[in-house]
Specification:
- Keywords: DNA-binding.
- Pfam families: HTH_31.
- The chain starts with 11 loop residues before the first helix and ends with a strand.
- β1 and β2 form a beta hairpin.
- It has a 6-stranded antiparallel sheet with strand order 1-2-3-10-5-8, with helices on one face. The chain has a 4-stranded antiparallel sheet with strand order 4-9-6-7.
- Helix content is 26%, strand content 30%.
- With 194 residues, the chain is α+β, with helices and mostly antiparallel strands.
- It is globular.
Length: 194
Amino acid sequence: MRHAPDAEDPDPVDVRLGARLAELRAERGWTLDDLAERAGVSRSTLSRAERAETSPTAALLNRLCAVHGRTMSQLLGEVEARPAPVVRAADQLVWEDRAAGFVRRSVSPPHAGLRGELVEGRLPAGADLAYDRPPVPGLEQHLWVLEGALEVTADGTAHALGTGDCLRTRVWGPTRFRCPGPGDARYVLAVVLP
């Protein structure tokens, strides 16, 4: 007789993501302690993410991307089953930071020969995401708000954006994305490597 597991089965994307994070660390010959020091994240948090015992937050992935010199789209693209030039809506990789309610859809697949990617983001009212550094310094971003309102802080300047507004920036330091409400915010982010 089979017993029901005590915990929910891990998300398949989290399992592939954890395995890829462990591979990246091993490729550099780093221990968990080495990576923890470089990323400013606890060893236990890294270990749990690598084993898919927890779904990593956007802030954690951002720190790991910075250490590994990748954008989040590149990292998430590396865990797709197989890259393709066309990705149908139903097949686009969707990742969720459950703690913040942030949902990220990789609209265009990352490709080694291309510098640009499209990402759709959704933030619920009241959500507040802070990144302490860009995944790649000098990353070019074009953020177009499709629905709702979004407050974005980049290079120490806060920008209040409404439906239809577009913010263009190069990211060198901390950024913050906040949805003041009353409704959710949905936006497209064009990411271009320097």
